[in-house]
Amino acid sequence: MNPDPVETSALARIRDIGGLELVAKFVQLFDTYVGPKVAEACAAVQKGDLTAVAEAAHPIKSSAGHMGAHRLHGLALQMEELARAGQPAQLPALADALGAAFQEARTAIQAQGQALGLPPSDPRPA
Amino acid sequence: MKGPLIRLLLVDDNPIDAALAQGLIASLSQELPIETHWVDSAEEALAEVRRHAYDLMVLDYQLPGSSGLQVLAETQKLPELQRPAVIMLTASGSERVAVEAMKMGARDYLRKDELAAAPLTRALFSALTQKTLEDKVARYLAQTQEDLRMARQLQHAMLTQRFPSFPASAEAAESSLRFHARYVSTAELGGDFYEVLSLSDHAAGVFICDVMGHGVRAALVTAMIRALVEEERAHAADPEGFLNGINHGLSAILKDMEDPLFATAFYLVADVAQGTIRFVNAGHPQPIHLRRRDGGVVLLQSDEHLFPALGLVDTAVYMAASATVEPGDLLLLYTDGLIEMDSPGDEEYGVDRLVAAIRQQHHLPPGQLLDALLADVRAFAGGREFFDDVCLVGIEVAVPAAKDPAHES
Question: What whole-number distance in Å separates Cα of residue B34 and Cα of residue B84?
């Protein structure tokens, strides 16, 4: 497991593809899109709605993967697979870990963005 | 691959995935000038492709409330030239889905976790190349179909629609020779042709032919024969000279063909003043003579005179046979598409059944008789349509009006 919550070269690859503009878009979407999906997944676990868990975890998985947030990616992958398999037992613990992993990744992504040249963003948790 | 702008529809409900795809596509702009439009639902995707023509669609497998495979299935129903080439986006471990998508018509698939410039470029180039080629073929086929449709219309227009009267001043219903024709064409261009020539006030020449095969070359040979009929019109009163002239002309044209082409043909001269017909058969199905006097149905044949089809033997010398005809008689000329229909049990209709059908329904007026014969063959074939063109020409030696007031023309 990578000790860094976010792979340091991921955003640099994004910059190589579409410049700082694309990096800024990714950083913003991580907040405005992935954040609510994490909240959706956790709420679905509390309700016991496995379909909603899988549907929320699915985009978290690919989004985290593109941004080098491997721990977040791995947790979302596990949650999606367990929900689709109808095995809810571990989901509450995974949901807690998912929330924490998201906050860690968010902080790291914003720091990397600034290191690449983006202005500081809102430090409050999503 | 520089050229016109390529229109791409990106269908993905994940804005991060979409932003990455759009960024990668934009980075290829030097090689592929692509204009990308992004939608995030199946409904919007289908509305877009139905409204606008896209060259490409990059389609996420998992969409809210639907699946990319459903969008793919609906897209495949669009007309070919409006249908974009689809590249599926799948999650890792979904190769089964990718294979299913390819079977349904997707050109390629990409894994989202491996989305990068190189595989995307490969997939886009490959899909575009396939689509460009298929669109060319589709346009060519559409143009060819349209050309064939027009050619079929022209072929039908070449067939005599208005028959001469005998004498020329008579109304059709008063003509001493009356003609009835039916032509059933298959979808393709055919090689059946007939012509009625006015030779005098009491004599007509009737020509029928059937060119071997179908399609463009049969149609071209038919057109040649029509031209030769016109060219030999001066000799039309002489069945032998007429058909010899056509055969010679056709043989000269066809002699250098790699594959043999020929046409069966039958030509008769009917003279109501003399009550005779003279006829020459070049390998054609023997016409039928329905004698009103005794209800007899016989084949117009002359065993001493069996001649090759037109175009086969340049040196053939066609010789005529003769027969007598009386008022009320009907001569039926036809092409072999009529008698070669098979029943569901693979039995051929054949000449014997045709003769029997005419004997059964000989009391019908000529036009109705032709229709009844067609219906009989269709019924025999189990309702299937003819697989070869069918041409029926009935030549009625009219009963003078005073003697047959109930005649149908």
Answer: 14
Per-position pLDDT tens, chain A of length 126: 445 678 888 999 999 999 999 999 999 999 999 999 999 999 999 999 999 999 999 999 999 999 999 999 999 999 999 999 999 999 999 999 999 999 999 999 999 999 999 888 665 555
Q: State the CB neighbour count (10 A cutoff) for residue B256.
A: 6
Report d(CA B363, CA A54) in Å as an integer. Answer: 80
- Residue B368 Cα to chain centre, angstroms: 26
**Rg (alpha carbons) of chain B, rounded to whole number:** 32
Q: What is the pLDDT of residues B271-328, one digit of tens each?
A: 999 999 999 999 999 999 999 888 899 999 866 667 999 998 888 889 999 999 999 9
Q: Do B14 and A63 touch (CB under 8 A)?
A: yes
DSSP 3-state of B57: strand
Q: Which of B23, B26, B91 sits opposite A62 (nearest CB)?
A: B91
Rg (C-alpha) for chain A, rounded Å, is: 14
Of B113, B137, B133, B111, residue with least CA distance to B123: B111
Give A89 to chain B, closest Cα distance, Å.
24
Q: Chain A: nearest CA to B23, how far in angstroms?
A: 5
Residue with tokens 């993905």: B12
B240 CB neighbour count, 10 Å cutoff: 15
Query: Alpha helix locations (H) across B159-298?
Result: 215-231, 239-254
B135 touches chain A (CB under 8 A): no
Strand B85-90 to B108-111 pairing:
parallel
ipTM above 0.95, yes or no: no
- CA of A66: which chain B residue's CA is closest? B113
How far apart are alpha carbons A14 and A26 in whole angstroms?
A: 8
Distance CA A113, CA A101 (A): 18
